[in-house]
Structure formats: structure tokens, C-alpha cells
Amino acid sequence: MQRIPVGRSGGTPGTRPPVLLQHGLLMDAITWLLLPPEQSLAFVLSDNGYDVWLVNSRGTKYSQGHTSLTPNDPAYWDWSWDELVAYDLPATIQYVHDQTGQNLHYVGHSQGTLMALAAFSKGEVLNMLRSAALLCPIAYMGQLTSPLAKDAADSFVAETVYWLGLNEFDPRGEAVVKLLKDICSKPGVDCTNLLTSFTGQNCCLNSSIVNIFLDHEPQPSATKNMVHLAQMIRQGTITMYDYGNAVENTQHYGQPTPPAYDMTSIPNDLPLFVSYGGEDALADVNDVKLLLGSLKDHDGDKLVVQYRDDYAHADYVMADNAKQDVYDPLIAFFRLQ
Q1: Can the keyword Lipid metabolism be found in this entry's annotation (predicted)?
Q2: For 31-50, what is each residue's pLDDT tens digit?
Q3: Strand pairing of 129-135 and 168-169?
Q4: 294 catalytic per annotation
């Protein structure tokens, strides 16, 4: 984790309300620092009086430590987002809570929202939170429109990488680049702009920011995690990792099919700020509506839903108008909690 204890205006460290920022898939905490200082969410929060904590998920370049393994060990990569929900998210939230002595606000983007929603549905971490802001919420993925992601899921790309014995899914690695090229050569898949092929048509990216993004991202994940996400795309469900047969599932879960995460069990009084975009090819509008349907009994004064018809997946962390359009309303929401 990295921490920005005070902003440029100074202030007293330790008294400010803490905020934890959790990035998405194939990213790291630089997600929150890509824009200029007066526009990046991490700095904007800091300048607005918050104590900002940045998480880097396991396997990314700032988070490759381990008590006994190295990233060269297959066992190091034996995890999917189930483990991020069960271990990593509670550990990071607990750490910030212990260090600051305060309950915290949470901001997730993409997979960072999936981790939070799954944890909330199991009653995890709720006693340490003030509120949560979910940008591009991912719960259901059955209707995602990204041609690249859909094709990869339908052709079992992640599974193929896994069967080849590549436990680390490195988007810059030779094997993954070759598979991407194969998909991109298929009829109907246009990869002239690789970012757009994944995220949807972003409205508001300044061309220079894409170069900054590519200096730092994408970051590795576990191939097992990619397999898990592909299962969700193909099945339209939100369950734990499916080992693919009743025997192995029963060994892990005590039942022949993987247990589901029940979105309707998220407490109705948890303050939630949800923002999604009409052009997002990963957090598709129809999938977000499924999630919002699960939250239909949420207390009216505890749920703020923002819809931006021209935003896609990367706009939420890279758009030159994200501060005015998303971050300012998000901070106004935090102030009310």
C-alpha cells in the first residue's frame, strides 16, 4: 500500500477521514494517479482533507512480496478474486482501520467493485466502513459487450494459458500477446485500438494520457483469476471459482457446484455511491441494471446512482472531465456520510 497522509494544503496527519482506493483488473494503484495532480482522484481526495490509502493487489509490481514464495512459484499464482475477497480486502481495510483508528470510505474501480460487493454480500468488513463508492460496478458479466473479452471467454483463452502451465497471466508476456494477436485477426474483431476493444469507446481521454497509462500498465494477474472471470462471462452468474467437476468442487466447497455470492444480502443501510457509463463494454449497462435490481430494497437515502451516457470503462480513471463529472459528486457523497 501507499499512503498520502496530507495534501498540498498541509493539515494535521492522523485526524483526516481515511479513504482506501482499490484498482481494477490488470492495473495497480497508479490507476488513481494517471491524471494531472489537480484531476487525479487520489490527489483530489487528499486536497479535500482525506487521508488517502492506495492498494496494489497481489502480483502487481509493487506487491510481489510473500513470506515463502516468489512470483516464479506456481503456488504464488494459485488464487482468483475469491482470495482477494476472503483475505486481501479484509486485511487492507483492517490495516487502515488499525493505523488510523477510524472507519473508512472505500473507492473501487472495476474488479475493485467486484471485490467489495462480494465481501459486503458475505457481511465482511462492514463494521469498518463509512461508505463505498463503486465506479464501473462489476457483479454480473454475462452481457458484457467487449468483443475482445467476450471472444477470449468464449474461446477459453485463459483456460488454454492455464493448461499450458502459465500460472501468471502477464498481459505483456509472449504467450498472452500471441493469443491477443490470434483473437485480433478474427473477422469482426477490430483491435486497431486495443484499449477501446476492451473498455468500450471512451469519450474523454486526452491522447497523452494513454501513453502515461502504457508506461505503467497493464500489470499481471493470476491466470486462475482470468479463468474465474471468463466463467462469469460465459455463465452470467456471480459464484466462487468453478473447478469444473463435482469432485473438486466438493473438496473445496463441500458441495458439487461453487457457492454463489448473493447480492441481495448486501445490507440496505450501507451508504453506496454507484457510477456507471453507457459506453462501458466491461461493466455493461444491462449487467449493472441486474446489480441495481438486487439493490432495489436499498434505503433510498443511502444509495446514489450516477449514470454517464458517454463514459466507458477507462474514462472513470483517465477522463479529463472526471473530476467535475464524477469525483466532485463522489466527494460530496462522502461528506454526507
Answers
A1: yes
A2: 999 999 999 999 999 999 99
A3: unpaired
A4: no
Which of 110, 146, 197, 275 is the catalytic position? 110
Q: What is the pLDDT of residue 191?
A: 67
Residue 218 has pLDDT above 80, yes or no: yes
Class of residue 251 by CB neighbours under 10 A (exposed 0-12, middle 13-18, buried 19+): exposed
Instruction: Give the model confidence (pLDDT) of 254-282 as tens digits.
Output: 999 999 999 999 999 999 999 999 999 99
Task: State yes or no: is 170 an active-site residue.
Answer: no
At 139, phi and psi to the nearest 5? -130, -65
Alpha carbon distance 303, 292 (integer Å): 10
> Pick the catalytic residue: 82, 88, 170, 280?
280
Q: Catalytic residue at 280?
A: yes
Which residues are within 8 A (CB) of 53 and not within 5 positions of it... i.e. 6 or more apart? Answer: 1, 2, 3, 18, 19, 20, 21, 92, 96, 104
Q: What is the CA radius of gyration of the chain?
A: 19
